[in-house]
Structure formats: C-alpha cells, structure tokens
Amino acid sequence: MAVYKPTYRDKKTGETRESGVWWFEFTYAGRRVRESAKTSRKTVALEAEKNRRRELERALAGMPVEPRENRIKSVADVVKVYQEHYPHNHRAKSVIFSKQRLAHVVRLLGSTLLPDLTEEAIHGYIKTRLKEKASGRTINMELGELSRAVGKTWRELWPRVRKLEERSDVGKALSPDQESRLLEAATGERRRMISLFVRIALSTGMRSGEITALTWGQVDFERRTITVGHAKTRAGTGREIPIGPDLCNLLQAHASWCAERFGVLQPGWYLFPFGKPRPEDPTRPTTTMKNSWATLRKAAGVDCRLHDLRHTAATKMAEAGVPESTMLALMGHMSRAMLERYSHIRMKAKREAVESLELHEKRPISNGVPKVSPKVAGSKLVQ
C-alpha cells in the first residue's frame, strides 16, 4: 500500500509544491492503479485505497460491485433517476402509484445520502409516518418502492427492520340492503355512467381500472362475454367473463345511447368516454369515477369504498358455492391467498351455517293415539 501527495510546479513562481489531496498507487493483477483519494486526510486516503483493492477483488471474482458514485448520491437523486425510467415498462396507473408512494419518501428522506440510509434512519421514517396516521400497509409499500429505487431488496438494505403488520380486514362486502340502496340511487340520466359502472362491477367482479378501460371491441353481445384488457396481474389480462341477460341488455341500451350521441360505434371507442360533466370524447377513457361515486354513495347512505364492489362480487360467488378455480379465473387472481382476502362470508350465511349444526334431541311422538291400550276395570253385569 502506498499513499502520497503528488508535487507540482507553480506556474507563477516556478516553485515545486505539494498537493493538498492524497493519492494512492498500487499494482493489481498486473495492472497499475493510480487514483486520487479525494481527501486531505491520510487516514481516509488509506481507507479509500483499501476499499478500491476490495472492489477490484470482487470484480475479478465475478461478484457485483456498487458504483462508487452511488456513495455520494442522495435518496432524492436515486428516486429521480428511477422515476425517469419507470414509465418505459410499466402501466400509467403503476407510474402514478409509484409517484404517490415515493412522494413521502422524498419529503422525509430526500436529502439523506445512500450510506446514511441505515436501519436507524428507516426506523425514524416509520415512526414519523405512523404519527401521520399512515397504515402499516402504506408504509411497507413506500419502503418497498424505495428499495426498488435503490436497486436492492428490503432484506439486503435493512435486514433487521421487520415489515409492519397489515390489516387484512380493510375490504368488506356490501350487505343485500346496501347493494339495493346503491342500485336504487343509481337512476336517472345524470347518473348513467356511474350506474353502469356499479352494475358491471357487481356483476363481473372486475377492477375499477379494468372497467373504465373497456372498449366496445371487448364486448361480445352474441357470445355474451366481456374480455378484460391489460390487467393488474398476468392471470387477469385477457380473461373472458360471461355476462348475464340483465347486464347484456343494459350494455346494449348503453351502446344505442353512445351511437346516438357519437355516431356509429367503433371497436376502439370506450364505454366510459372522457368528458366532464358530460361524456364528450369516446376515443379517450374517463380519468376517474371518484366524484360520481362519492355523490352516489352519499345519496344511497352507504359507507364503503369503490373497490368493495369487487369484494362483494367475490363474496356472493363464495356464498353461492362457486368452485375456487372458477373464482380465480373470473377474478383474475394469482393465488388462493388473495382470493381469501377478497371473499367475506356475511353474517346471514354464517347464521344459516350455524343453524344447520343445531342438535335435535329425539322426543316422543304424540299423535293423540295411545300406543298401549289402557286397562279398564271390570264392570258389574247389569242384573
């Protein structure tokens, strides 16, 4: 090992002077390595030389080597690069999701350098987000997105930081009464779009994004099916969902309405056209149904999320005894665990199940006819 301060000639005075920065020089695998340690402290220069040797050893052994420039990058720098490339191979909705999750990360950890992104720093982040009333699932997703931006797994970065517990009871299924109130409130021309949306969701179990992205080319009236486009999961993309007579009639009526308003229907036109307050452009999908949903939910007096319509569809199928494999195919789920998260057995079904377990003790049957003839006392003969 050799660290030194190189000398140079001052152009003005012609004197030889010593540099204020340390360099290191050594030979490794037959090659000369001479680099600046970028420090004025000798102890740091010696450590820099040692680390450089270690990097070369790992590279020669075929092991991954972290770029040295990453050591001085901040979390904000890494996130910026990550988000620049993220849209190249992800859906628009996933891009929005990533930005939302990383916004809090940048706000709280943006100025933190990568070497300082320690387990202690992560514990501090978790503590702050919990004080801000963020759920365990939200915090896990934020830190998971941060680890992907850094390019390492959670376990590699923070092996002793456990993920927070996540609630599994967030979603719920609507009761029959709540479902009826929603459908009753979803009437009238002003609520045409949200009415159709709710009925498709309850009748098919499709995700919100899958419904708003539907085009007329995905609806087959002859076969009475809907073909889902690009979905959240690989299992969900391109799945075919049968539709019942009622929903089919409703879609045909909506098709006539769209044709009257926009002209002859085109396969690429969307069922839920873009435009506020009225649909105006069928070549573009609506951006969101949240405002219409909030108005409908308030009118119906039902407290639930838009995604609970999907939970309701899964629950109704589970209670009806639909086979698990069929439910997986219809819902577009990848696993049984996810399916269990969506299907909730409602109280009525639970009560019926418990009542079927009632113990019925055997009791004597009385139909008014004695099984044994009663003994009659002998009567005196009439003289």
Describe the structure.
The protein has 383 residues and is mainly alpha-helical. It has three domains: 63 residues, no CATH class; 86 residues, DNA polymerase, domain 1 (Orthogonal Bundle); 176 residues, Intergrase catalytic core (hpI Integrase, Chain A), CATH 1.10.443.10. It has 15 helices and ten strands. The chain has a three-stranded antiparallel β-sheet with strand order 1-4-5, with helices on one face. Strands 6-7-8 form a three-stranded antiparallel β-sheet, with no helix packed on it. Strand 6 and strand 7 form a beta hairpin. The chain is elongated. The C terminus is likely disordered.
Give a concise summary.
This protein is mostly helical and 383 residues long.
